[in-house]
Each structure stands twice: as structure tokens, then as C-alpha cells.
Amino acid sequence: xxxxxxxxxxxxxxxxQAELDTSDQPDADRLEAAVRELGAKDLGTGRPQPDRYVYxxxxxxxxxxxxxxxAEQDMDATTAWLLDRILS
Length: 88
Fold this sequence. Notes:
Blueprint: E1 2-9, E2 16-21, H1 28-38, E3 53-61, E4 64-71, H2 77-87
Antiparallel strand pairs: 1-2, 1-3, 3-4
InterPro entries: Emfourin
Pfam families: Emfourin
Protein name: Metalloprotease
């Protein structure tokens, strides 16, 4: 599974991008479980708020491509961990 994340917004309005191939990671099972959970979660509207981040994810798994938008204020602990893990 390949997960691409683009973070935009924030106080300075900077954009940060990263991509992670989960198959290369020692915690691949945890990463993939967190990605799969995104589809089942109610992550709010995804609408930005002043000085907060918005995350756009693209998940490529076999022949499937899915997209998710997560606003910073709508994140739970698992989603925050996942996004931090990919962007660091």
C-alpha cells in the first residue's frame, strides 16, 4: 500500500508532501490498519479553519485508489499518529 499525504494551511500557509510505501516499514500492519480505518470514520466536513491544517490523502492499494480529506480539528489519535508517521 502506498499512501501520499499533502498537508496545507496552518499559520504560515505552507504545504508539505510525503509518500510512504507501507510494505517497506517494520510497522506495516499498524499503518495499513490505520489507513483502512479512515474509510469507516466520520472525520467531519474536511473544511479548513483559520490557522489549521488540512490533510489530503491518496491511498493506492493494488488496483484501488481512494482519497480522503481530513481537517486538523476532526482528527482522532490514530489518524494523527498515521499522518505524523507519514510526514516525518
